[in-house]
Amino acid sequence: MNMTIEQVLAAHEFFAIGEQNPKIKQIKGVLSNTKPNPNKLFVAEGIWLLSLCEKFHTPIESLILCPEYIHTSQAASLADSLALRAGTRFTVSAKTYDKISERGQPDGLMALAQLPSHDLASFHPADDAVLLVLDGVEIPGNIGTMLRMADGAGIDGVFLCNRKARLTHPKLIKGSQGAVLSVPLFEFESVAACRSWLDQNGFTVYLADTRADLFYYDEPFGKKTALVMGSERYGISREWYDTACQMIAIPMEGSCDSLNVGVAATVLAYEAVKKNKFLPNHIRPHP
After folding, report:
1. Is 139 in the same domain as 244?
2. Residue 198 sits in which domain range?
3. Strand, helix or coil at 253?
4. Using one digit for the tens of pLDDT, what is the confidence trace for 139-162?
5. What is the SS3 assignment for 5?
6. What does the H/E/C string look like for 148-205?
7. In CATH, what number is assigned to the domain containing residue 91?
8. 110 with 142, same domain?
């Protein structure tokens, strides 16, 4: 049903607030990544991202509308759907909205939403599963890019240990292109805890390391696979290096000695997923 913003405002209780309101200050704090964020709130702005929040039933802590910027029935209908689930609802003027918007042509919809929570105890990957393990990756945009890649490649889940960046960082949210809402994401307190889970669940662990003698395209995979990517500055933590893990490399034919971690993860992930999930066993290469 086509709606107008006037109908939305009449159907739900909204409170008009200004720039000095604590809610606006909270949004600014989340956007600047400078304030404590124990509930893992992130700012979702615009029809596209908020439509994904609606699709994946992302919890909406607060909905903020700028009626002056809402001109389409699509935006109004989305606002109505979000208002039904929002914990609190506010309206702001265009002047106030401009203070918190990161878009050049805003469409007047913004929310403080909560990242999804996944239960590791209920996570049971299949025998052809491929997991991506991010160990100490520091740059939020790289994490977001790898989440986006994981969604596109069909990775079964992403594990994080030695986390150095907030999952709610605006650059991570933007870089993921919504994948932070769809890809199962699990955080471990230590490398040991992550290793223990992988071992108990029968995963073969591969370490992305340019020093390896084995190139990624020569590995047949075909079993539960975990690909470990290290930090941009320090690489993979030393705790991973033992006989239970295999080092695997991407050949570097030019003058550079390595690839960006997101690019390297993409190369390895697509190869592993292809061989695990799509390449018939009778034609899978063997070393």
Report:
1. yes
2. 120-283
3. coil
4. 999 999 999 999 999 999 999 999
5. helix
6. HHHHHHCCCEEEEECCCCCCCCHHHHHHHCCHHHCCCEEECCCHHHHHHHHHHCCCEE
7. 3.30.1330.30
8. no
